[in-house]
Amino acid sequence: MRENLGVLLVASAAILWGTTGIAVAFSRSSGLTYLQAAHAMLLTSSFFLLTTLRDGLKRLNPHLLLYGLLVIGSFRVLYVTSISVNGVGLTSALIYMAPLIVVLLESLRYGKTPRMTELILSLLVFFGAYVATNPELSLTSLRGLLIGLALAFTYSATLIVPRELYVRGFSRNEIIVQSTLSAAAALTIIVLVTEGIRISLNSIPYVTYGGVVCMGIAVILFYEGMKTAKPTHAGLITTLEPVVSLMLSRVILNEYLTPTQYLGVAIIIVVAATTLATQK
């Protein structure tokens, strides 16, 4: 029952994350780049989380700061890098190699053969994400693939590491606040060195929404869910994110979805439903 609640919380986080694309799209139309939008939202989420989770800095720990730097911060940078090399659609697809990576890493860690059900579901969900977010079914270069793999590995770490941090006795608020601040500091340096910090008044509503809802509330739901959800199940259920993003793009941005994309969406929903149905 507790694991089922954990997966439901992760699913709620994924749904909120799915709205990020709209916030980023409007932020970019207001003059921000992908990196500047991600940075502005991360700064906003840092302020929101600091004021909401006030006990998050009670016990400063280098492990949490390192987690934020190497995993959360790296994911943001690799995501923007992948977009520049692979495009938005293929980047979204490559991220969802993560469920398969988690299944394989978890089996290695416990010295067990991967469960066939989880292998099949993770392969299905990658295929679903690939055709849903990449309707041209385009392939990438070796460089693009390596960047995509690095992106998927950092995303896998966000699914595996939280349980280890909980085992070590860190609280949810400590993990969230310290890792977010560390990632925000690293991204601030990168933005200053590369594109420069840009302020756009028109982007403030979208950046605020992205920071508070997508990188704030959604993150709280995710880490609360990861207290009990298995990393393999969490990885499968987070693929609801591109489903929500595509549906909102269709409704709000009037983007056309191909039959192939609807097929991908259907596959992801079936995998998510199957994952929820198998919870005890």
Short description:
The protein is mainly alpha-helical and 280 residues long.
Describe this structure in words.
The chain has 280 residues and is mainly alpha-helical. The chain has 13 helices and no strands. Helix 6 runs antiparallel to helix 7 and helix 6 packs across helix 8.
Features:
single chain; 280 residues; mainly alpha; 13 helices; globular
Estimate the global geometry from the Cα principal axes.
Answer: globular
Helical content (DSSP H or I, runs of 4+):
over 70%
- Name the beta content range: under 5%
Encode the helix/strand succession as letters: HHHHHHHHHHHHH
Number of strands: 0
Mean pLDDT: 92
Q: Which helices and strands appear, and what pairs or packs with what?
A:
Layout: H1 2-17, H2 20-29, H3 34-52, H4 62-86, H5 88-95, H6 98-110, H7 116-133, H8 142-167, H9 172-193, H10 204-225, H11 231-237, H12 240-252, H13 259-277
Helix pairs in contact: 1-10, 1-12, 2-10, 3-9, 3-10, 4-5, 4-8, 4-9, 5-7, 6-7, 6-8, 6-11, 7-11, 7-13, 8-11, 9-10
